[in-house]
Amino acid sequence: MINAALVGIDFGKTDFEASLEELSLLAKSAGATPAVTLTGRRSSPDAAMFIGSGKAEELRLACEANDIEIVIFNHALSPAQQRNLERALGRRVVDRTSLILDIFAQRARSHEGKLQVELAQLQYLATRLVRAWTHLERQKGGIGLRGPGETQLETDRRLIGERIKMLQGKLAKLRRQHGTQRRQRERTRTMSVSLVGYTNAGKSTLFNALTKAQAYAADQLFATLDTTSRRVWLGDEVGQIVLSDTVGFIRELPHQLVAAFRATLQETVQADLLLHVVDASSAVRLDQIDQVNEVLHEIGADTIRQVLVINKIDAVPELAARGGTVERDEYGNISRVFLSARTGVGLDALRAAIAEIATAEPLGEPSQPQAAADWNPLSHEPSREPEHGR
User: Fold this and answer.
1) Which among 179, 327, 354, 383 is placed 20 to 30 Å from 340, CA to CA?
2) pLDDT reported for residue 382
3) SS3 for 296?
């Protein structure tokens, strides 16, 4: 483990503390030990070093006093800001996007996942090549060095561009293969259900509980990167469904990752039903719901029927007694199910809810993603009487 300094600047957003706590979890997930946390308030970022020269000097002294090896910013830095900070601090500086990309690179296991991570990393790197090789910027020349008239920087850009094009081609081929598999499911009329939600909401634990699979599950951010699908038997009337566990979302998810992971997220876009898993024990669960819905909108999955699965109720005394409770919207459609994937309380109610949705025509407009402000499990009473799982 390497010692890291965390830097977060408050620009007046309400979720600053939660975002900083999340950065600490991200750093630990990447293998770093947060030893120093530097915060400050600004109305806007400093153009040269994001935090200003005074804060940069304060940060440098803190790094020297605590043997800091890496500085992690809870923000997106421009290439110029990153270079200036590294010169001033004498240490490696990474931003939030780079940190998340590093975690993804560590966790990718499947061939497809590794391709997607590499594509995202190269797209990120391509924007940071400016002056990255200052000693090689002049034209090649001299005996034995006469080249095609390219600078080293131009060569690097061209090679990266070619690699990006090749990766995009491979991922497009994998997308076509996924499409063939989905058409096969459609021909056999197999219902497709995807688990979505904020990272560490308990999706993989729920997936294992429903499918008896052994998918990797851990109390850490981005424990799951590769989509895993299993068939689940829901009785003679419904038969089998295909349940997919997908990558968790996070606030300010890098656009490179959203773009690169479109092949994986196609399972979400093409699903018949989304089970939006919510960590009931999180103090910022309402914000997390909105963050997930934003990403669903970005990938074109915001029109798919959605059921909120309120997970980890065993960790919330006010909700513990609601295990197996099913709530319905104004049209009578199932909108929320309360359960604990860890203890198994409420799993039968969820299975029954999926079976009902699979076999019954909607009574009205199907449930769509809700704004978090429309729901608070600790204060908002449902408009209809809740029912308990059979």
Assistant:
1) 383
2) 42
3) helix
